[in-house]
Recover the amino acids of this structure.
């Protein structure tokens, strides 16, 4: 069982098909630049202040990969910014799909072809609700033979 939920569901099945999650390793020069830019950013300072922890100690998110992806992946100048689950250019997972608490949302958006957005409306869709909606969506698509999973 992965993540913080208590059931094995469709999102776990999808995560198992993904390559093993790994953190980006930077060259020594890039690492030095990353440390300076990342830890000196408004986003980092706000994160540490609000959460009382260093985000770089989170094993479930690849901040170096996000930094390489630039402001479209994680805008370090915006304290309220939220990092993407995947780099849109490389498709590399930045969140560990097996362990990060919100990676299921990326699977839901991707597999529903963007038709089911877990953050729409009040943004309070649960993982369990998302699993039910995605399974229903995939059954309908299979019936119409428009989609293979």
């Amino acid at each position: 069982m992965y993540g913080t939920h208590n059931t094995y569901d469709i999102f776990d099945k999808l995560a198992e098909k993904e390559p093993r999650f790994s953190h980006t390793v930077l060259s020594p020069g890039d690492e030095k630049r990353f440390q300076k830019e990342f830890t000196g950013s408004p986003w980092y300072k706000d994160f540490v202040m609000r959460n009382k922890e260093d985000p770089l100690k989170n094993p479930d998110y690849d901040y170096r990969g996000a930094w390489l992806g630039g402001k479209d992946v994680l805008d370090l100048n915006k304290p309220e910014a939220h990092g993407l689950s995947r780099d849109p250019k490389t498709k590399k997972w930045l969140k560990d799909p097996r362990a990060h608490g919100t990676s299921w949302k990326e699977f839901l958006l991707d597999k529903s072809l963007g038709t089911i957005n877990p953050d729409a409306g009040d943004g309070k869709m649960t993982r369990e609700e998302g699993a039910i909606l995605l399974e229903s969506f995939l059954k309908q698509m299979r019936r119409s033979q428009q989609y293979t999973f």
